[in-house]
Amino acid sequence: MSRKTTSARRKAGKKSKPLRKARAGAGNKAAYGATPPLRPNEIEEVFRRFHAANPTPRGELEHINPFTLLVAVVLSAQATDAGVNKATPALFAAADTPEKMVRLGEEKVRDLIKTIGLFRTKARNVIALSQKLIAEHGGVVPRIHEALESLPGVGRKTANVVLNIAFGEPTIAVDTHVFRVGNRTGLAPGKTPLEVETRLGQVIPDRYRLHAHHWLILHGRYTCLARKPLCERCIIADLCRWPGKTVAA
Ligand code: SF4
To answer: 76: CA distance to ligand 1 center in Å?
Structure first.
């Protein structure tokens, strides 16, 4: 997915630490967790507008099947989706199953993904998770959060992405964009990705949950940018509680 969440930074770091010095960016107008929360009717309106603007949002990582999605998400830690998408066609043409990936071997995987940051560690993890899928899950990507999170290179966010996109589970994957948008807007103020995920799970109306994380990612990636949010074209600007927004409420 996208880059720079603290949770993504440490895959093994499956625990969320408070982002004590983190700020909401763009002038540090409010610390994460400090924006006043939106009311339920306002949250309903936020997602009504996201749905109206884009009824069926899609993830941007190219993949062929649940296994290649899992690999793509693992590769996307600390990297952009666009950067991952440049490398994965050749990788997935060579190996689109755990068995083929193991046969391809770490060295060739490393060579095929060398344009992606942390490629050595990621190549090692891709081989190790493929081996574990074969040994413990018959070569099939499990539809169980704990089983996914036990795979090498797979943290909570990656497991949630795979469950959502591959299996249609209404999970919320909190990457850097979701973390920022959840905090800035007042949808889900929280000091850690897990706090934001938990709060989003509590406040998002059921009918919007399946697509919620895609809407929030896309909003953060293309509108509520970290340094210069495009508030003047934001469809929820009147609802947003962030004191740093650049349009009047
Ligand atoms: S108004 Fe929109 S773009 Fe601006 S900070 Fe709020 S959510 Fe982000």
So the answer is: 25
